Amino acid sequence: MRENDFHNAQRLIERDKACLWHPFTPMKQWLEGGEEPGRVIVAGEGFELIDARGRRFIDGFGSLWCNLHGHRVAEIDEAVRSQLNRIAHSTLLGHASPPSIELAERLVRLSPAGLEKVFYSDSGATAVEVALKMAYQFYRNRGQTNRRRFLALGQSYHGDTIGSVSLGGIDTFHSIFQPLLFPATFVDSPNPYHHPAGRRAGEVVLQQADEALAAAAGEYCAVIVEPLVQGAAGILTHPPGFLKGLRELTKKHDVLLIADEVATGFCATGRLFACEHEGVSPDLMCLGKRLTGGYLPVAATLATQEIFDAFYGEISEGRTFYHGHTFTGNALGCAAAVASIDRIESTGLVEKLPEKVRLVSRRLAELKDHPHVGDVRQCGLMIGIELVADRETKKPFNPLDRIGAKVCLAARKRGAIIRPLGDVVVLMPAPAMDHDTLDTLLTITIETIHEYFA
Ligand SMILES: *Cc1c(COP(=O)(O)O)cnc(C)c1O
Q1: What is the rounded average pLDDT of the residues 77-88?
Q2: Mean pLDDT in residue range 88-106
Q3: I want to staple 62 with a disulfide (CB 3.0 to 4.6 A). Which of 6, 249, 402, 428 is the partner?
Q4: Is the beta carbon of 262 within 6 A of some atom in ligand 1?
Q5: Could you tell me the CATH number of the domain that includes residue 341?
Q6: Can you give the pLDDT at residue 324?
Q7: Which residues form the domain of 278?
Q8: How far is the CA of 232 from the centre of ligand 1 (A)?
Q9: pLDDT by residue (tens digit) across 262-307?
Q10: 232 CB less than 6 Å from ligand 1?
Q11: What is the CATH number of the domain that holds 363?
Q12: Is the CB of 260 under 6 A from ligand 1?
């Protein structure tokens, strides 16, 4: 049995290597790698992933930040099956469908006040594209043709399409495409560990944004932000009050605020949405990742009535938003999302988050004095442990040594699948993860770091 499993796993990885090209993956290293633990995932159960050899791992990265209630959740499985008995997909272009209606109602009810309309797409990147195009056309439709600028934070990540990359600031991913991008204005990321102003980074960056918006008054469409924390940059947390400050600035300069809640939305920060922590209502909000509980690719861009109204008029007025994707509002995905929201409510998940967040903080404190841990960042259940060559000087490791990747591989051998961002070890447990599993995940991570540098 074990031998069969082994050959089966070997065979699968060989077939993979023959014809797949993996995302965000250096393919030479993939092809040269062996059948490492957890490489071929064949099943999941609760908060565990099961590989082709039957080994079980804690899903410590929420299957790339989208898992919410665990895997094979009975209610969500059933909702998808029951929708499958009716129809898998029908278009929203000129037609309507019950699951997309139900989900839109729920999103409007749950999201920050003022967001009244739901535009569907199928990934975080497309949700951002939609927001950018809406912001631009919003002003066009109101006769303000000079507005075409966008402002973003350094080291932002908003997805991988050309529009969303234009507002991205992660050099490793984005710099090569520079000649293809539309110009955008960047201000610093206000993370206190990385910004020279430290604790004052929030004020300094807000000032920078204020000056940039004032310098080209009447030319900006929107400011886009990952509220509270820049995920892909390495869980770069923002000082308290920064988001609120940005909301005030965008009001002062009369530009739209786009909250990209693709990573933070649906319980990751300790609340349903990150914007709630600072009582902020954005003009546009992008949702993806956990929207369907991590089951299917559905994303949404929520807009205010004011934005919607600017697109409303006679055909001859040319106000229509001509944008859409074939699988927009997919019925299976929307049914999964509705079931996921039902489960958030029926399990009282939001009320249970603070205790999980406290458990994480308590455990992470064990790493605070480690000589190779430069910074431990936490925003709810989004966790980044930054490994450095020297804690005192903050000197990083040589990126070519791939220390972060090696530590994560070592964690896999101890039974948890996690993924680094450079030398930041990232944990993104499903928000519904039980205390025991969460505690084990942290134990594995902490012990792996101690052992690696022993
Ligand atoms: C993951 C992510 C995206 C992109 O989502 P995809 O579904 O991968 O296109 C956009 N914004 C943020 C903040 C993200 O973390």
Answers
A1: 98
A2: 97
A3: 428
A4: yes
A5: 3.40.640.10
A6: 97
A7: 76-346
A8: 9
A9: 999 999 999 999 999 999 999 999 999 999 999 999 999 999 999 9
A10: yes
A11: 3.90.1150.10
A12: yes
Nearest CA to ligand 1 atom 6: 124
Average pLDDT, whole number, for the chain? Answer: 96
Cα separation of 354 and 351, whole Å? 7
Residue 19 CA to residue 381 CA, distance in Å, equals 36
Query: Token pair for residue 127?
Result: 């949700």
pLDDT for 1 beyond 60 = no
Q: Is ligand 1 within 6 A of the CB of residue 168?
A: no
CA of 393 to the centre of ligand 1 (A): 32
Last residue of a domain, one of 346, 363, 378: 346
Q: Is 234 in the pocket of ligand 1 (CB under 6 A)?
A: no
Q: Which atom of ligand 1 is nearest to the CA of 297?
A: 7
User: What is the rounded CA–CA span in Å between residue 103 and residue 242?
Assistant: 31
**pLDDT exceeds 60 at position 365:** yes
Number of domains in the chain: 2
Cβ of 123 closer than 6 Å to ligand 1, yes or no, is yes
Q: How far apart are CA 308 and CA 312, in angstroms?
A: 7
In a domain, 341, yes or no: yes
**Measuring CA to CA, how many Å separate 179 from each of 174, 233, 282?**
10, 22, 30
What's the pLDDT at 6?
A: 75
Determine the distance separating the centroid of ligand 1 and the alpha carbon of 258, expressed in angstroms.
Answer: 14
**End-to-end CA separation in angstroms for the chain:** 37
Q: Report if residue 83 sits inside a domain.
A: yes
- What is d(CA 129, CA 136) in angstroms, rounded to the nearest whole number? 11
- Distance (Å, whole) CA 222 – CA 136: 8
Residue located nearest, by CA, to atom 8 of ligand 1: 124
CB 227 near ligand 1, within 6 Å: no
Distance of CA 402 to the CA centre of its chain: 23
What would the pLDDT profile of 14-67 be if each residue is shown by its tens digit?
Answer: 999 999 999 999 999 999 987 788 899 999 999 999 999 999 999 999 999 999
| Pocket mutation for ligand 1, best pick of 286, 289, 421, 426 (most atoms within 8 Å of C-beta) | 289
The residue written with tokens 């051998």 in the block is: 413
Sequence-distant (≥ 6) Cβ neighbours of residue 73 within 8 angstroms: 293, 343
pLDDT one-digit tens code per residue, 149-193:
999 999 999 999 999 999 999 988 888 999 999 999 999 999 999
pLDDT higher than threshold 90 for residue 148: yes
User: For helices 435-452 and 349-364, what crossing angle results, to 10°?
Assistant: 20
- Shared domain check, 337 and 213: yes
